[in-house]
Amino acid sequence: MMQIEQPAPPLWHRIVDFPLIAMVLAVLLYVTATRLGHVVGKLVPPLGQPAAAAVHMLIMLGLVIPIYKLAISRLGEHPRDELSGTGALPEFGSGIIAGTLLFGIVAAIAAALGAYRITGRGDAADLLLPLISTAIMPAFTEELLFRGILFRWLEEFGGSWGALIVTSTLFGLAHSQNPNATWFSSLAIGCEAGLLLGGVYMLTRSLWAPIGLHAAWNFMQGPILGVPVSGNAVQGVFRAKLPGPAILSGGSFGLEASVIAVAICSAAGIACVWVAAQRGELVAPWWTRRSGESLPSGTVKETNRDPRRH
């Protein structure tokens, strides 16, 4: 049978579909939704904690998720929903387990080296507020922005390696204004978290696993083990100190700024990226796909399931 050649989309459609244009539009939609969430949250009558935090979270998610589902996920040449309900629970659960184990290993090594010490029992009466404010909200909003928007379209344009490098750098810089931040803490966040979360995203092509890992990582640090979360002091189930040299303890920024976390989590991130590459999840740069040039050495051939990947 003769195949009917599809007409080329109009110029305006091709412009909007261009990866960097789609990314800018997605960022604008994301910023609009989050700003509106903050405005609406201020209109809520005064409530006691943690009720106020829970209401604010519901307002924020109630705006961001529909914007993502109805608009952001439909942008670009290859629209897709990375917050799909299909497989969400097992992927989110695997992220929770991975984040818990990784930070548990980091804390255990720090304790063995004398860089983390439990000094007593903290206040575990109410973990709902830190669960919302320290774990769920930062994990959801940051992963949607950095992996669901920036990584997605930077990868569409510059390929997987470019997206991984740029988003990891931006993720580290985004934490440079946190309390007690240093140049090394920003470098550490970029290397360990940017690489790890980017690798998990490449491996799963979903936001649920990175969100789960990010949330569990934060929750284990502050609300459970009682150490600062990215420089922010959080009361935990245990009262703890970070004695010893800052290179091992992370100092006032927390264990995230320790070489222990950098080594453990960067290794895990490299492993995720390696497995993703073996599964053919690497994406070639836009100009390579358009020009039809040969693929870089060391990559596998493009598959029929997604013309972007090689």
What composes the largest sheet?
2 strands, antiparallel
Strand order of the largest sheet: 1-2
Question: What percent of residues are in strands?
Answer: under 5%
Low-confidence parts, pLDDT < 50 over ≥5 residues? 293-305
> What value does the Rg take, in angstroms?
21 Å
Distance between the termini: 30 Å
Helical/strand content category: mainly alpha
Overall shape? globular
Q: Number of DSSP strands?
A: 2
Mean pLDDT: 87
Our count of helices gives 10
Give the fraction of residues assigned to helices: 55-70%
Order of helices and strands: HHHHEHHHEHHH
Report a brief summary of the structure:
The chain is mostly helical. It has helices at 11-17, 19-42, 51-70, 88-112, 128-174, 183-204, 208-224, 246-249, 259-278, 286-291, and strands at 117-121, 238-241.
Structure description:
- This protein has 310 residues and is mainly α.
- The chain has a domain at 87-291.
- The chain contains 10 helices and 2 strands; from the N terminus they run ααααβαααβααα.
- It has helices spanning 11-17, 19-42, 51-70, 88-112, 128-174, 183-204, 208-224, 246-249, 259-278, 286-291; strands at residues 117-121, 238-241.
- A two-stranded antiparallel sheet has the order 1-2.
- Helix 4 runs parallel beside helix 7 and helix 6 (183-204) runs antiparallel to helix 7 (208-224).
- Mean pLDDT is 87; it is low at 293-305.
